[in-house]
Write a structure and sequence with these properties.
alpha/beta
């Protein structure tokens, strides 16, 4: 699992790539938390386009990020979610809390 980020104005773009499973979720939350605490963005876009696998641990990552942003008054959205990741998040009802945009294959 690799976590990178880019700040654009008041938006923090966080890019996850690789496999987001039980083993990677804790580290991903830690790294994302550090970026959120440093920049305190008004909006965070969690880009999942680089994920090759995501299990239910991804739910905890998205919701943990959402809760942390709420402490700053910030908002979270998920972008470019691969079909498998979007399915996991939607089945858990996360899409009712966090907007999720599915990756379009071209």
């Amino acid at each position: 699992m690799r976590v990178t980020w880019e700040l654009r104005g008041s938006r923090l773009f966080v890019y996850l790539s690789g496999e987001l499973d039980h083993h990677a979720a804790h580290q991903a939350l830690k790294e994302m938390g550090e970026a959120l605490d440093e920049h305190m963005p008004l909006h965070c876009v969690l880009d999942l386009s680089g994920l090759t696998f995501m299990d239910s641990s991804g739910i905890a990552v998205v919701l943990g990020t959402y809760r942390r942003l709420k402490t700053y008054g910030g908002e979270l959205s998920v972008a470019h979610a691969p079909n498998h990741a979007a399915k996991v998040l939607t089945m858990a009802g996360v899409d009712r809390i966090v907007p999720i945009a599915v990756a379009v294959k071209g």
